[in-house]
Amino acid sequence: xxxxxxxxxxxxxxxxxxxxxxxxxxxxxxxxxxxxxxxxxxxxxxxxxxxxxxxxxxxxxxxxxxxxxxxxxxxxxxxxxxxxxxxxxxxxxxxxxxxxxxxxxxxxxxxxxxxxxxxxxxxxxxxxxxxxxxxxxxxxxxxxxxxxxxxxxxxxxxxxxxxxxxxxxxxxxxxxxxxx
Length: 180
Known about the structure:
Elements: H1 2-15, H2 29-44, H3 51-64, H4 67-76, H5 88-95, H6 100-110, H7 113-116, H8 135-144, H9 155-169, H10 171-179
Helix pairs in contact: 2-6, 3-5, 5-6, 8-9, 9-10
């Protein structure tokens, strides 16, 4: 009887794979988005779909990556300071036109941190009241824009800097604020 129950457990596991198998909605947000953009850019640039060229394109894209996308690049080994090298787990399947969701599923099995990455919630600068935001959030806006606020000591300094830069980085929000 014991061997029969062991066999039925093995059969159940084979027929109904665990949650680690397929991605659910919202899983691997950064991985799927980054690799999707990369794949589309490879198609647009008519890159030769072989592992070597794709690996070069991944490394090049990762040089410009910021925030969570840079962290993703670090996890797959596409940054100069990465401790591991799993970039071939991306380049080889992409060369065979494997869907990015499937690539991310495989990466999730190798390193679960990859699928834990989520993009930060984006603020709608057209409607948000900057005065009600925390300084941390104001600094985050400037960081996303690749700007800094030298000499900013108070919240109003950060608000002034954001308002000054808004026409460059968020023109719709700047227009909406002048209409008020």
